[in-house]
Amino acid sequence: MTQRMAGKRILITRSEEYMGPACAALFRQEGGEVIADNSDLGSEAECLTVIEEAGHVDVLIVNLAAPNHYGVLATDLAEEDWLQTFELLVHPLHRLVKHALPPMIERRKGKIIVIGSATPLRPMGRLCAYSAARGAQISYVKSVGVEVARHNVQVNLIAQNWVENPAYYPPELMENEKFLKNLQEQVPLGRLAKPEEDAALALFLAGEESDFFVGQAIPFSGGWAS
Amino acid sequence: MTQRMAGKRILITRSEEYMGPACAALFRQEGGEVIADNSDLGSEAECLTVIEEAGHVDVLIVNLAAPNHYGVLATDLAEEDWLQTFELLVHPLHRLVKHALPPMIERRKGKIIVIGSATPLRPMGRLCAYSAARGAQISYVKSVGVEVARHNVQVNLIAQNWVENPAYYPPELMENEKFLKNLQEQVPLGRLAKPEEDAALALFLAGEESDFFVGQAIPFSGGWAS
Amino acid sequence: MTQRMAGKRILITRSEEYMGPACAALFRQEGGEVIADNSDLGSEAECLTVIEEAGHVDVLIVNLAAPNHYGVLATDLAEEDWLQTFELLVHPLHRLVKHALPPMIERRKGKIIVIGSATPLRPMGRLCAYSAARGAQISYVKSVGVEVARHNVQVNLIAQNWVENPAYYPPELMENEKFLKNLQEQVPLGRLAKPEEDAALALFLAGEESDFFVGQAIPFSGGWAS
Amino acid sequence: MTQRMAGKRILITRSEEYMGPACAALFRQEGGEVIADNSDLGSEAECLTVIEEAGHVDVLIVNLAAPNHYGVLATDLAEEDWLQTFELLVHPLHRLVKHALPPMIERRKGKIIVIGSATPLRPMGRLCAYSAARGAQISYVKSVGVEVARHNVQVNLIAQNWVENPAYYPPELMENEKFLKNLQEQVPLGRLAKPEEDAALALFLAGEESDFFVGQAIPFSGGWAS
């Protein structure tokens, strides 16, 4: 067994949702000390507390999730759902990054990995709030990524789609023939990724061998977007 | 003189800011009836009122502006400035589009043009909130653009940079030698665009000859981004 | 009638193929003097002759066409078909641009518009030679576009797909129900563009109002790619 | 020591040039059997021989190199240099992929990694042939990548720039102050990558943990392009 995270402390937010469990499992398996946080991240103060209580962090995995309201037309999407999407996916990103960066910059070493989405890379209708919020994440990562690279801190985003998770692909959907046919047509690889494969990309981005990745949104979608 | 907007009603928001004046002038010159609005757009109710009071609208130009806080590091950007950027640039976009679309969809005809930014297309540091918000606009337009195209309504965005305007390029900057040298190095064309050139692109997107443009973020930056 | 090309001389290559006829018709209708060339462009000497014989050229429309061999697997595509695709689509582009540029640079004025393809923007299988060649065109235009912009010469490319033309969409295909269903699913606008709409974009790019477009590959595909 | 390539046979072309030596070293260190080829690849027959003589290949690394003629204007680039660039960078790619794929498809397992360039992602002037050829590589990989994914064969490309190599960054350039200043300004990370870092990305793409990467051009440039 490799121990690629030996001696590293990894903070994972919303650790029971989205890619949280798979990332926690793999980073622990690789010898890392994982701080699995489940705070709401609903204010700057709360995010600051999460960062402060975590102490020394080598790798911050910003894992955020929200209902995607898929299927709701732009003309029907309620103001409160719109605002909530940004509250859950966008504002916590800045709050966490803002407070996690200073010690990384001071040490001239650190990795921030955002678990994002490929939906902004290949436009889908009936998904306007989620698309906009995930697009904000990508542009944020690109800007901050180039800003802090000179301090040897790398900020990148996994632009994923078609990765197994119970929120977006519940068991009943996975047995739906129409969905499976659509999956074959839409995803060149013809299957969903396992969360473990996604975590393997996060692990690659967390290691020093990928220091030259800076401010990137890396498509991870079986060929659906590129 | 051509009369490319004869018989058309064009609603321009925040019409005294950013590209508002140039668009209003050109669209009037081309024979259009321009409704120049200057509301704050700070709530869904206010946006709905703007749309309702405008009456029949053939072309909606979503022109929004905000301080870009250029030069402020991500570690220094205040929560209130972060949130305000989304309040000014992102949330009004959905509120306006949501309420402007239904009559366009019913008529099977309509154009929405968002005056956006090229900054998400070529990442810049020290610009995190603005980049994120402008990126949200782009992803929103792409999603809604493909959603409503089947109703023959076209939603597109002008992804501009290096266009003259007093907010981002005040007179004293335009005489600054270092800025002018930077302009030569950064912008292949070697100059800023006149707002009139930008308005000419908006005019092209407002006409029927560009119906095949759907959900696009069109770079307009003298070759800086592409 | 507007006369947007009055006093302009426009050279269109392979003028009986692809977008040649529609461009020739519109540019003439707008008052331009069109030189409609149908040379093979199979060597640098031949391309040089075309440019020299055309004399003063304000706008060069590089319109090239080739069999796309759609449906042929990469493992089956013959060497000769591969090479021919580059002979028809890629090498003439450089030969024409190389010799058309000097007088434009000297006059500090000129437009080159390449009629390209959107296929590199949204990958399709079973189209490897055509995709590669059209991708070479896009990268060439981006490089040369930023190179010559400082001389006030603009080089851009129309990255089109789903535009009516008898070579790629023959009449029998247009009546095929499966094709029409596919068209509805793939193209958000739900229809092909008329060649006249495509020519209108070329006209926009040929005029001074679009001088700020530099080295761009502009998607024109009804929302299929963006 | 990990043995991530244990039991694997890796064919590397032009193995003494560009990223050949670094890839060969790392893949051997990880337990792989490396076939280091140095053929000219100047015809389909020669490429076929290379593939046939290599026997069973799990991973094909298409490593091609050519003079980039950086600094030569489009108006000055000779026909023979133009054609040679495609002979060296583009045509061998198809010839190798065409003949390497069938056994991979039959086994439902295989990886092809193209060592490409980021230059098409961020346009540079005075580099037209190289940009066009590297752009052709990217579009080819995207098309073939989605085509063969259903056979569980993954084709991807490393879109690199600013990676140490004696051809593009000779020792005298590395000591040139102007170059070093330019490096600081252009590359957010502020340094060149070591070839070993590049090989680490190739290793990641060669392993099963990255099967969900399909038909992608992955920027690897220290934040220069994204």
Structure commentary:
- Four copies of one chain form a homotetramer.
- With 226 residues, chain A is an alpha/beta fold.
- Chain A has one domain: Rossmann fold.
- In chain A, 42% of the residues lie in helices and 15% in strands.
- Chain A is built from eight helices and six strands; from the N terminus they run βαβαβααβαβαααβ.
- A six-stranded parallel sheet of chain A has the order 2-1-3-4-5-6, with helices on both faces.
- In chain A, β4, α5 and β5 form a beta-alpha-beta unit.
- Chain A starts with 8 loop residues before the first strand and ends in a 6-residue tail after the last strand.
- The mean pLDDT of chain A is 97.
- Chains in contact: A-B, A-C, A-D, B-C, B-D, C-D.
- At the A-B interface, α3, α4 and α5 of A face α3, α4 and α5 of B.
Number of helices of chain A: 8
Count of extended strands of chain A: 6
Count of folded domains of chain A? 1
Helix residue percentage of chain A: 40-55%
| Secondary-structure-derived class of chain A | alpha/beta
The CATH H-level superfamily of chain A is NAD(P)-binding Rossmann-like Domain
Which helices and strands, and how do they pair?
Four copies of one chain form a homotetramer.
Chain A: E1 9-12, H1 20-29, E2 33-36, H2 44-54, E3 59-63, H3 79-89, H4 91-107, E4 110-117, H5 128-148, E5 153-160, H6 171-174, H7 177-186, H8 195-206, E6 217-220
Parallel strand pairs in A: 1-2, 1-3, 3-4, 4-5, 5-6
Helix pairs in contact in A: 1-8, 2-4, 3-5
